[in-house]
Design a protein that fits this description.
The chain is an all-alpha fold. It is 58% helix and 0% strand.
Length: 92
């Protein structure tokens, strides 16, 4: 596990959140960054920690599956993140 200060953890989470909000990062990439940058875990370790299969985690990180919302939120939770919807202004 990575030994980070509270400030370092907040900074990493803020960057992930910012990149997600600006479409610079997919959900799978965000999960991978939480796993590696915040926890320093392998896919096997993180999958066991979250209680999902290795294959499920691998497929989600690669973008090869459309997982249920409950699974996504389970994988994002250790990064203090949760999937939600926002209204987007669109010009017509």
């Amino acid at each position: 596990m990575v030994n980070l200060t509270a400030a370092e953890r907040k900074e990493i989470v803020a960057k992930i959140e910012y990149d997600l909000a600006n479409n610079a990062l997919s959900l799978g990439e965000a999960i991978k960054r939480i796993r590696t940058e915040l926890y320093g875990m392998t896919q096997t370790q993180y999958a066991k920690f979250i209680k999902v299969s290795d294959k499920t985690l691998r497929d989600i990180e690669k973008g090869n599956t459309d997982p249920r919302l409950s699974v996504i939120n389970k994988l994002l939770a250790p990064g203090s993140l949760k999937l939600s919807a926002l209204q987007v202004q669109r010009s017509v």
